[in-house]
Amino acid sequence: xxxxxxxxxxxxxxxxxxxxxxxxxxxxxxxxxxxxxxxxxxxxxxxxxxxxxxxxxxxxxxxxxxxxxxxxxxxxxxxxxxxxxxxxxxxxxxxxxxxxxxxxxxxxxxxxxxxxxxxxxxxxxxxxxxxxxxxxxxxxxxxxxxxxxxxxxxxxxxxxxxxxxxxxxxxxxxxxxxxxxxxxxxxxxxxxxxxxxxxxxxxxxxxxxxxxxxxxxxxxxxxxxxxxxxxxxxxxxxxxxxxxxxxxxxxxxxxxxxxxxxxxxxxxxxxxxxxxxx
Length: 278
What we know:
By secondary structure, the chain is mostly helical. The protein has helices at 16-36, 38-45, 53-83, 93-114, 129-137, 147-155, 161-175, 192-212, 217-228, 238-253, 255-258. The chain is globular, with a radius of gyration of 19 Å. It starts with 15 loop residues before the first helix and ends in a 20-residue tail after the last helix.
């Protein structure tokens, strides 16, 4: 996209301000309405749950913010470049194994510790698992168009990956805060402090994976999906503790990359196509 003077308009770190305004404004605005007018909204949109259209809209806010800012700064061509990041499949075998096997292992281990691992497949009839999987694939992972789509690359232009991950994780955790006060959401039964620590830890893990994959959106989406996968048992709060341990191990094993700008992804478009990429 170009300005009226014909100069190319770059997405700078300052774009994080409108990104956060849109993300928090839409999500927290909807949440406030749900808290203040639950009966009226229930009469119009149905019971407050993960399938409530207002809840889905609130969850999609970071994704909307990310896509709209890409279009604002780079136009349709830039949006196409942004979406082509779904074609990046450069993660190492160890990362793929962690996504496919490591994440469920954390949940099962956490469930064993809490004693909540009683039914390994809580779907009856068995085929009801398929719509549940499809729904979770198109719910939370849409956030990644914003969090890892533009927020993390922009933060890494100023901060090393570890501090970018911690800061983004803190913002990500606080963004979820209203859902802890709304009955009918999964978060309403959780402890916020444990959740917050867990989300920051997940942000650290995802940052290492994101940089390793050179900014792949599809891998970030798949990671997020695995975190929300309805098949895994509920191991809270121990799953959050275990993810924190995993995050520490990953930082130790990748300390050079996590504590320096080496290998940091700073572009919001395909590698080599973002004029603001460092």
